[in-house]
Amino acid sequence: YLVNYRDRDGRSIQNDSNAVAQASLRRGLSRTEAGRFLISFYSWTKVDMFLDAWRSAGFRVVGHLVFRKAYSSKARFLKYQHEQAYLLAKSNPALPERPIADVIDMPYSGNKLHPNAEAHRGLLPLIESFSQAGSVVLDPFCGSGSTLVAAK
Question: Can you say how many angstroms the Cα of residue 81 is from the centroid of all Cα atoms in its chain?
Fold first, then answer.
């Protein structure tokens, strides 16, 4: 988001604009209860905007995750072979019973219909570690539904 993304076939993401993303982010973050976690993928070129939004909604950075991919999604000065996300907390949630590694292998989803789908197997450790059975798992952009499958 916030990068005017286009995949190799020229497809783009509807409403990929600063105004839409910032408004969605503010609404969702402001409604999050104290004592909860937020895991947010972000564009490294826009990290300052994301950090400002998270902090203004009462979140603090408590970790950083790297999702290593065996394939390159794009190449410019470097081959892009990872995604990153911040682990944020609102107030003081309990520590996870079994902390996970901050580097996670992200298998290719095989989803040819969604330009940047994440494999649900890569998201499952996050849900298991930072939520409880019956908790609400919110994915405001939802994409290809990988988070929904992992949270099932």
Answer: 16
Under the banding of pLDDT at 50, 70 and 90, the label for residue 148 is low
Structurally, what CATH architecture does the domain formed by 18-151 represent?
3-Layer(aba) Sandwich (3.40)
By DSSP bridging, strand 79-80 and strand 82-90 are: unpaired
Residue 45, pLDDT > 90, answer: no
- Angle between helix 47-56 and 18-30 (nearest 10): 30
Q: Which residue has the tokens 């402001």?
A: 30
Q: So where are the chain's domains?
A: 18-151
Beta strands in the chain (DSSP E): 36-41, 59-68, 74-75, 79-80, 82-90, 103-105
Report the alpha-carbon distance of residue 146 to residue 8 in Å, rounded.
Answer: 21
CA of 19: how far to CAs of 5, 34, 52, 107, in Å? 15, 26, 14, 32
- The pLDDT value recorded for residue 127 is 86
Checking if the pLDDT of 150 tops 90, the result is no
